[in-house]
Design a protein that fits this description.
Blueprint (H helix, E strand, L loop, with lengths): L2 H12 L3 E7 L8 H10 L5 E4 L10 H12 L4 H13 L6 E4 L2 H7 L1 H11 L3 E3 L9 H7 L5 E3 L1 E2 L5 H10 L4 E4 L15 H9 L6 E4 L5 H7 L5 E4 L1 H9 L5 H14 L9
Parallel strand pairs: 1-2, 1-9, 2-3, 3-4, 4-5, 6-7, 7-8, 8-9
Helix pairs in contact: 2-12, 4-6, 10-12
Length: 270
């Protein structure tokens, strides 16, 4: 079993859901990024989504756009991200790490080369927002032999054709978008979200993780009632941006621990 499969199976046995924080590699500083990622891991994250900085992150709202631009200015590249993963693995970090990035930067690196280097570094998979599921098979064919999961998005607006391609090709888990639009904090989640996930469960056995709009422990607790994981990005980036540099790791640790506590189900929910 892969790290991702093992993680979801272990959590299911314990009556927990997965907490999946997102952080842009190289944010807020290049020199402090690795330590911050390690703090996130040690504070309760079950998997971490590492953003590859990109100048035009089309699926991301203003918060993550700003973080990505900061990281670009900090000199972070796809190669830097792979080196960060390699260093984290060499320091003993075992939880799943997936890279989130856009097609152009991955293609510029070279897919065959990327598959080899990502596997060697210790990457578990890729989330690629602008890769259409109906055109993804060549990518899957390159990444899968290296044990790299291609993780697809599924939204309430996804067409039947694209949903069928997602279910057929997806590995690791499905990234279920809670709202239409881009990433960002929101006050509430759609009332239709549980029904959407129930429909998805009828056609796949993959774990379902919900992202876009999850802003705090109350959302994580809500999502944990009907999904297998919660993805938190903009809220974490905002916390980092608003916190004095000398207190960032302390506040991030507190926030992640609070979110993780919200993934633990009561006996009535299990």
């Amino acid at each position: 079993m892969s790290r991702i499969e093992t993680m979801f199976a272990r959590l299911k046995e314990r009556g927990e859901r997965a907490l999946i924080p997102y952080i842009t590699v190289g944010y807020p500083t290049a020199e402090g990024s690795e330590s911050l990622i390690r703090t996130i891991a040690e504070s309760g994250a079950d998997m971490i989504e590492l953003g590859i900085p990109y100048a035009d992150p089309l699926a991301d709202g203003p918060t993550i756009q700003e973080a990505s631009l900061t990281a670009v200015h900090n000199g972070i590249t796809l190669a830097s991200c792979l080196e960060t993963v390699r260093s984290l693995r060499e320091s003993g970090l075992e939880l799943p790490l997936v890279l989130m990035g856009y097609c152009n930067s991955l293609l510029a690196y070279g897919l065959e080369r990327l598959a080899h280097d990502a596997k060697a570094a210790g990457v578990d998979g890729f989330i690629i927002p602008d890769l259409p599921s109906t055109m993804a098979q060549p990518w899957v064919d390159i990444f899968e032999p290296h044990g790299l999961d291609v993780i697809f998005f599924l939204a309430p607006t996804t067409t039947e054709e694209r949903a069928a391609a997602v279910v057929r090709q997806g590995r690791g888990f499905l990234y279920c978008i809670s709202v239409t639009g881009v990433t960002g904090e929101r006050k509430s989640l759609p009332q239709e979200l549980p029904e959407f996930l129930n429909q998805v469960r009828k056609v796949t056995s993959l774990p379902l993780a919900v992202g876009f709009g999850i802003s705090g422990a109350h959302h994580v607790r809500e999502v944990s009632e009907y999904a297998d994981g919660a993805i938190v990005g903009s809220a974490l980036i905002n916390l980092i941006r608003q916190t004095p540099p000398e207190l960032v790791e302390q506040e991030v640790s507190r926030f992640i621990a609070e979110l993780k506590q919200a993934t633990r189900l009561t006996s009535a929910q299990v």
